[in-house]
Every structure is written in structure tokens, then in C-alpha cells.
Design brief:
The complex is a heterodimer of chains A (178) and B (253). Chain A is mostly helical. Chain A has six helices and one strand; from the N terminus they run αβααααα. Classes of the chains: A mainly alpha (178), B mainly alpha (253). The complex binds protoporphyrin IX containing FE.
Chain lengths: 178, 253
């Protein structure tokens, strides 16, 4: 291991005086981290941020040149499409609403938001922090994964498997019918 | 002659230093620290971060990608505002103009559209990352809560923007979407007509969605993002395995 000199990590400004100002209890996560586990923001973080900024912008530009955003005929209140569909990220909800308007449209979304907000106050044990799929958190992670998968399935069903009158259709057959 | 060139050089150097006080490319620890905390825009960063938080496979950059997408959306959104008119007579025509008569108008609209779709996806992925790495545990509980509101704002922005092209897709998606609000017991219909400014999606709804989309929701988003980033710093940077009760197990860098 390379030896780390105090002058390098905590440079002294000759124009300033230094003294002990305050003692803090060691509850801050950075306390106890050895200096060699830390790197400078300049350049290590900034270069990564630049790379992400440039690649995201470039990818968007390329996508925008080749894939057009949809634009249908002008809005017409007398010509309802069948079925009328909400934006894709709400199609899971629309699917639930088709079973029960009150439960699917109000109760379940309300519960989801409430539970999401409460998550960190329900699950406070300091284990598995900063580690992907820590085994101490197997239960919590499985529940959340289940939640995500169920939402995803509902969205896929709402997007591809629902036709006129919200009847179940199989996408490849719907194409054949045309 | 030589004298004059060096005088100009010194002068330009002074001007440069008046803007960036600590010179060009900082190479030593002192310069690198000053470069960050003497710059308003860099100052949302700490001077140092853990190596662990920089591992690409830890965050996958998902939060940062969400933030970049939001910046792109502000930039292209403001640009679109120069062309767009939020009336039922003009809105759709303006969409057609962007396609045909505005230089690169289609690129502008497409970038805004695809960045918006991507933002919904990446914010959800970022939330999943935070969950699966247990990064909402104390002291970061509240930043998770801020995050949930950022997620709701992201949906709100996407949904209000969906109406603005005023095509069939927009009209019926918002008709269906807002009808869900009508299912709330007792006050459902009141909520719905408050959102729409009437019984159906019309001019009142368009102007309401427009103001929400270009002023109110982005404003709230900026404030909450400021809180989100501030809290990351105040909570001691990104979550690190050494914070675990049994930290010896987690090691990490
Ligand atoms: C507009 C949406 C959002 C943006 C732009 C955003 C941005 C960020 C950024 C840049 C980070 C730094 C780490 C990283 O890049 O992953 C971060 C961390 C964090 N975010 Fe978000 N975020 C958003 C939404 C959310 C949501 C929906 C949640 C959770 C419900 C959330 C909870 C957190 C937490 C708890 C941290 C600290 C993570 C750690 O310490 O490892 N954020 N966010």
C-alpha cells in the first residue's frame, strides 16, 4: 500500500492558522474511512460526469434523427379510438382499473406511493448498505423485485395484449387481422 | 515588441485568473481542492469521494443519467417554447410546422420526446438501484422520500407534456388518464374538473397542462433536485459498506 502523507491529502494554506475547533462523534460515514479509500472529485468524478453527459446527448441526437416521435391526426372529441390508452407508464394502472375502478385507480396507487415513502422508516437495520443484493436483505430485495416485475407485467399486458373494448388480444394475431 | 506580447499575455492571464482563481489545470492536491470548492457549479460536489462510489457497477450512473436527461429536457423544452402556442387552434399546426418548415424542428421535438421517455425509465431504474443497494438506510431515509416525490414529478411532467401536441394520441390518453382521478370517492369529479378546468379535455385543460408543464412542475423539480443533491452531501456522500453494523464483512473500497 502506498503511504499517504498528511500534506497531500489535507494541504495546509500558509496564510491560515489551524487549531482544533470541534470534536464530533463518529457517526458521519466519512469518519473512519482511510484517506486512500478517497479520491479527488477533480478529475475523477468530473471526467465521468463529462463522459455521461456527452454520451447521453449524442445518443439522443442520433435517436432523434432516425426515430420520429409519433403524431396522429388532430384531436377530435367525436372520434374516440378503441381502445383509448393512457401513456405507457400508466397502462399498468389502466389494466388494474379495468378490474375495479376504485381499487385499481385509487386504492392501489395510493398504497404504492404511501408504502414507497415509508420504506426507509419501516426497514432501518443497518445491514447490506452499499452492497448489491446483500444476503442480509434477501427478503426486502425479493419483495421489491416482485413489485417491479408485477408492475412490468401489467404494463406489458396493457400495452400489447389489450384491444378494442379492452378485450384480451394476442399482438401477433391483431396484426394478421388487418 | 517582445515586451508588448508578454504584457498582453500577463494581462490575459490576469483576466483568466479573475474568473478561475486557481489557474488552468490543477495538478496538485491544493489546486484540485480549490478548483472544486471555489466554483459555484462544482461546489455541489465534495472535494473527495470514495472509490467505491465511482465503481461503474455500483450506481451504473443511473441518477446522473436522469439528471442529464432533465437538463436536456429543459434546454430543448425552452427552445420548443419559441415555436409552440398552447391553443386548440394552433398547437397541432405548430407540430406540423416543426416537421416541415422549421430547420431541424423534427430533431428538436424528437430529442425532447425521447429524452422524456428515457427519463421515466432511468428514474425508475435509479430507484431500483438505490433499493437493491440498501442506500435508503439511515441517515439517507429522507433523501429516499425526496426521491419518491422526484419520481411523482417525473410522471407529472411526462403526463402534462403528453397533451401538448393536441393530436388524437394526446387527447385520448389524457381523457383516459384524468378519468382515473374521477374514481376517487366523493370528490373524484371535483378533482377531475379542477385538473381539466371543465368536463372534457378542451382549451382550459390545454392551458392548465401547459402552465404545469413549463413552469410549475419544472420549478418544483429544480427545487427538489437541489434538496436531493444537497442531502447526498450532508448524508456523507453515497452509501458505503463501511456504514454497516458489521462493517468488517463489507470491506469495499
Ligand atoms: C429526477 C429524478 C432523480 C434524479 C435526477 C436523481 C439524481 C441522483 C443522483 C445524481 C444521485 C447520485 C448517485 C447516483 O448517480 O446514483 C442520487 C442518489 C440518490 N437518490 Fe436520486 N435522483 C432522482 C430520483 C430518485 C428517486 C425516485 C429515489 C428513490 C425513491 C432517489 C433516491 C436517492 C438516494 C437515496 C440517493 C443516495 C444513494 C446512495 O447514497 O447510494 N432518487 N440521485
Amino acid at each position: 500500500m502506498r503511504e499517504v502523507k498528511m500534506e497531500n491529502t489535507h494541504p495546509r494554506d500558509p496564510k491560515k492558522t489551524y487549531g482544533l475547533m470541534e470534536l464530533v462523534k463518529g457517526t458521519k460515514p466519512t469518519v473512519g474511512l482511510k484517506p486512500d479509500k478517497m479520491v479527488f472529485t477533480w478529475p475523477h468524478v468530473l471526467i465521468r460526469e463529462m463522459i455521461i453527459f456527452v454520451s447521453v446527448s449524442a445518443l439522443l441526437l442520433v435517436a432523434a434523427f432516425f426515430i420520429d416521435a409519433p403524431l396522429e391526426a388532430i384531436a377530435n372529441a367525436n372520434l374516440p379510438p378503441n381502445p383509448a390508452k393512457a401513456p405507457w407508464y400508466f397502462l399498468g394502472l389502466q389494466e388494474l382499473v379495468s378490474y375495479s375502478a376504485l381499487v385499481g385507480g385509487v386504492v392501489i396507487p395510493g398504497l404504492i406511493v404511501t408504502v414507497l415513502i415509508l420504506v426507509p422508516y419501516l426497514d432501518r437495520k443497518k445491514v447490506g448498505i452499499g452492497i448489491w443484493f446483500a444476503k442480509e436483505r434477501a427478503l426486502a430485495n425479493s419483495l421489491f423485485m416482485l413489485f417491479l416485475v408485477v408492475m412490468l407485467i401489467l404494463i406489458i399486458v396493457g400495452t400489447f395484449f389489450r384491444g378494442p373494448n379492452w378485450d384480451f388480444v394476442v399482438p401477433w394475431e391483431a396484426v394478421k387481422g388487418h | 515588441m517582445d515586451l508588448k506580447i508578454s504584457a498582453v499575455k500577463t494581462y490575459l492571464n490576469d483576466v483568466f485568473r479573475s474568473i478561475f482563481r486557481y489557474g488552468k489545470m490543477p495538478r496538485d492536491a491544493e489546486g484540485q481542492s480549490f478548483a472544486v470548492f471555489n466554483n459555484l457549479f462544482l461546489h455541489i460536489h465534495p472535494v473527495k469521494v470514495t472509490r467505491h462510489s465511482l465503481k461503474p457497477t455500483y450506481t451504473f450512473g443511473l441518477g446522473l443519467i436522469s439528471a442529464v436527461l432533465f437538463l436536456v429536457l429543459i434546454f430543448t423544452g425552452v427552445w420548443l417554447m419559441f415555436y409552440y402556442i398552447p391553443t386548440v387552434d394552433e398547437a397541432y399546426n405548430r407540430m406540423l410546422d416543426l416537421r416541415s418548415s422549421t430547420n431541424f424542428g423534427f430533431v428538436l421535438r424528437n430529442v425532447h420526446k425521447w429524452a422524456a421517455e428515457a427519463m421515466v425509465v432511468f428514474v425508475i431504474l435509479h430507484m431500483a438501484r438505490v433499493f437493491f443497494t440498501g442506500a435508503y438506510k439511515p441517515p439517507r431515509e429522507f433523501n429516499w422520500v425526496v426521491g419518491v416525490f422526484l419520481l411523482l414529478l417525473t410522471f407529472g411532467l411526462s403526463f402534462t407534456g403528453y397533451l401538448l401536441p393536441w393530436d388524437q394520441l394526446a387527447f385520448w390518453a389524457i381523457t383516459v388518464g384524468t378519468s382515473i382521478a374521477g374514481y376517487v370517492p366523493v370528490m373524484g369529479e371535483d378533482i377531475r374538473s379542477f385538473l381539466l378546468g371543465g368536463d372534457i379535455v378542451g382549451q382550459e385543460a390545454l392551458i392548465r397542462f401547459y402552465v404545469l408543464h413549463v413552469v410549475i412542475l419544472p420549478g418544483l423539480m429544480l427545487v427538489l433536485l437541489g434538496v436531493h443533491f444537497w442531502r447526498i452531501r450532508k448524508d456523507g456522500g453515497l452509501a458505503h459498506p463501511s456504514e454497516n453494523e458489521d462493517a468488517s464483512a463489507g470491506g469495499g473500497e
